[in-house]
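Table S2 (text version). Query chain:
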Amino acid sequence: MLERSQDLRNYQREMSRYGLWLLLVCLWATGEVLAQPKPPEPPLVHISKAIVGSVVQTSDFVGTAIPSRRTIVGSAVDGRVVSLNVEVGAEVKEGEPIAQLLTKTLELELAAARAEYKLRQAELAELRNGALPQEIAQAKSRVAAAEVRREFLRKRLERLTMLDAGDEQVSEAMEGLRLVELGPRPERIAQAEAKLEQQENIVALLEDRLAKYTVRAPFSGFVIRELTESGYWLQQGAPVAEIIEINHVDVEVYVPEGFIRFIRSGDPAPLKFDALPDIKEPLVGKVIAIVPEAETRSRTFPVRVRLENQRIESGFLVKPGMLARCSLPIGPTKEAILIPKDALVLGQVGNQVMRIKDGKAQRVKIEVGVSQGSWIEAQSGIEAGDALAVFGNERLRDGETVKIGKVIEAAEVGAVAQPTTARPAVSESGVTDAPVTEGG
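Corresponding C-alpha cell output:
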C-alpha cells in the first residue's frame, strides 16, 4: 500500500515537470512567431499623365522696364505760382491739383459776369410772364378815364375838333390796354433769350479760364521732377512737373531679325527681374507692340512687353529702370509629348522617369527637349497617357510595387508637395485634398 502511494506521488511530480517543460516550449515558439517582421508597405507615389501639347523654343532677351505713360505737365495760361502742391516721389491721382496760379482778378471778372447773367435771366422772365394783373387794371382805368373825358367833351363842347380829340384819347387808351393784354412781342423775347445765352457763354468762358489756373494731374502716377516753385511767373506752356504712370510697366527688348517672325502681338512673355531675386516664378506680361523697323546697326527690332504691376506696401513691385530678362519665342510652335518636370529623375546615365503600369514602377530613359513652364518635352520613350510618378520617384526601384496616392490632373500640374501629415498632398497650385500618411 505504501509503495503504491509513493509511485503515485512520483508520477505526479514527473507530470508536473513535463507540463512545465511543455509550457516553456509553447512560449518559446510563440515568441519566435511574434518576432517575425511584417512585410513592408509599398511606397506611396503621386502620379500624373503625359499629355500632347504645343511647345515653342524660347530665349531670354535683356530689356529695361519703362513707365507705360510719361508726361511733363505744363501751364495752360500765364500766371504767378501761388503754391506747388506736390513733391518728388509723391503719388498723385488723376485730376488732383498739383499747382495753383494767382486768380484774384479773374475771380472778380467772373463774379461780375455771373451777376449780369442773373440780370438777363430776370429780364427774360419778366417778358415771358407778360403784364401783371395790376398793370392790366391800370390800363383799363386809363380807358375808362378817357371815355369819361370824351363824354364830358361831348356835352360841354360842340366843336367837332374837340370831340375828335376825345375820341383819339379813348383810342390811344384802348390800344394801350390791348398791347398790355397781348404781352411782349415774340421778337423782344427772342432778343432777351439771345442776350441771356451770350452772357451764359461769357460766364462759361471765364469759368474755363479760371479752371486753367489750377494745374491738375492728367492721370494717376508718381511725380519724378518738380519744374517750378512758388512765386515763379509761368508763361503759357511752361513746365510744372513730370509725372509717370507705373500701374503698368513696359519692358522694351531688342530681338534679332532672324527671330522676329516668330513673335506675335498679344503673346504671353515671362519676365524676370534681377532686382527681385525672391520672386521665384516669372511675372507674365504680354507683347503689345513690335516696331516694324530694325535698328540699322544691330539689325534688331524693338519689341515692347506690357506687365500689370503689382502694388506693394512701398508703392509698386516693378519700378522703371529695372533690368529685365524677357523670354520670347525663337522658333515655330509644334506639337509634342509633354511630361511634368517633377517626373524627371536625374541619373548618371541621363534623364529617366518612373512609369507606373499595373501597380509597378518601370524605369524609362528619355530624351528631353523644350521646357514649357511646369512641363518639358519628352522626345522619346513616353507616349501620351502614360502614368508617371511625380513624387516618390527618386526612391523607386525598377519593378517595385507601389501604392498610388494622388492622380494629378494636367490642369493642376505645378509644384507637387510631399504627402505628409503636416502638409497638403499637393501644393497651392495643385489639388488641396486632405493630407495622406507617408509610406515606403
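Notes on Table S2: The helical segments are 2-35, 104-129, 133-156, 160-182, 186-212. DSSP finds five helices and 24 strands in the chain.
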